[in-house]
Amino acid sequence: MPWLPSTTATLARFSSPTILTYILSLAYVELDPLVSKADDPKMVEDPGVLEVVRQLHKACTEAGFFYVKGHGIPETLLKEVRDETRRFFELPYEEKAKIKLTPAAGYRGYQKIGENITKGVRDMQEAIDFYREVTKGMYGDLGKTIEGSNQWPQNPPTFKALMKEYISLCTDLARKIMRGIALALGGAPDEFEGQRAGDPFWVMRLIGYPGASPVNGTDVLKNDTGIGCGAHTDYGLLTLLNQDDGINALQVRNLSGEWISAPPVPGSFVCNIGDMLKIYSNGLYESTIHRVINNNSKYRVSVVYFYETNFDTAVEPLDTHKTRFNGNKKFERAIYGEHLIGKVLKNFIDL
Asked: What global pTM score does this model have?
């Protein structure tokens, strides 16, 4: 069974027996010792840090998805970011369309319901995409597709400042978690800095999932599949998910091929591994397939931050005793930017 904290105080964090039942299948990691020591030159000697590293390794090998608390980002800010996102999605379409996603905008901006697709099927969601800004010629031909600046809405008026603060905090948190994961893989704390991810690309996607609609007394979703977001893996290193409280919609496919729920735990992030970290780990860590099905009658907001490698990094398995133990190199080199753009160009219709 995946690691689960056993103390009464820690279990009290979970707000209901239902949530506790679900996260018996996913690990829960208290990050505070790692977050507080991540930049300490002696972090590898700290017992608290080493315990977090052990838990991260167990979570990454057994599920690729895990909850984190003790991350240092206030719960009030997590909620404020979701509420601000909801305020934008509540605006009339004409207002939202002022920042409509187009190829000319570097694939940044707003998409109405049904414009995003996963494996050719329309997703039941609306969204805004933001990327780290890419100036002209910054990555040569590799970056041309996503050159441009983010489209920030004028309404709500506090939107841009709030989201930029949040992105900055998530970037720093993800960097610290990756220092722990570097140790978990048998490397140095800075394994994912420098040429690998010392100048990390990032993506943030704000998503709104309409609730189920009652038809003849039965809840029916407004598309043929009932899928808010189809089954997929994430593209980069590490994902930080901030999801609405009280709505159970995220599903993770476990190692047995079963779909299990990952319900929201107030004040926590759900973290998961991306395709690039799977390669770096030589397959020791899995980039886990997941999907979203919102059967609740309520509209669901999800704020997803993706921490990536350097855009132009060539990703290949690390050479550590743990990755070598997992066998010969199982993956060819992958250029992160090529991988990202290949996905982006297949994600939208009618553009």
From this structure: 0.91
